[in-house]
Amino acid sequence: MRTVLIAALGLICALPALATDMPQKPVRLGLCAACHGETGMAQIPGAPNLAGQRLDYLRKALQDYRDGSRNVPLMRAAIGPVSDADLDQLARWYSAQTPQPQAAAQP
């Protein structure tokens, strides 16, 4: 019983440290989540999953969409005049998400 209590106490003490690893939910997440899902798993066909992508890749891709280097009008319109800080927050959020297996398509 003592071992179980010690293990439980250890887990309780570790929870705050684990919680700080997840970045704060971005304020601008709503529009992104409409297509890419709040946890980075696509909500519509053709939208890529962003969960677990590399932080530097996501950050650069978002900057390129915003600045027009990647010519995807839908993404440019969705991002609009987003600050570098907001882009960084979005990239950190999606890179910290864990990819989930997708359900098999129904025949």
TrEMBL record:
Gene3D superfamilies: Cytochrome c-like domain. Residues 1-19 form the signal peptide. It comes from the Bacteria. InterPro entries: Cyt_c-like_dom, Cyt_c-like_dom_sf, Cytochrome_c_Oxidase_Subunit. Keywords: Electron transport, Heme, Iron, Metal-binding, Signal, Transport. PANTHER family: CBB3-TYPE CYTOCHROME C OXIDASE SUBUNIT FIXP, CYTOCHROME C4. Pfam families: Cytochrome_CBB3 (PF13442). Residues 19-98 form the Cytochrome c domain. PROSITE patterns: CYTC. This is C-type cytochrome.
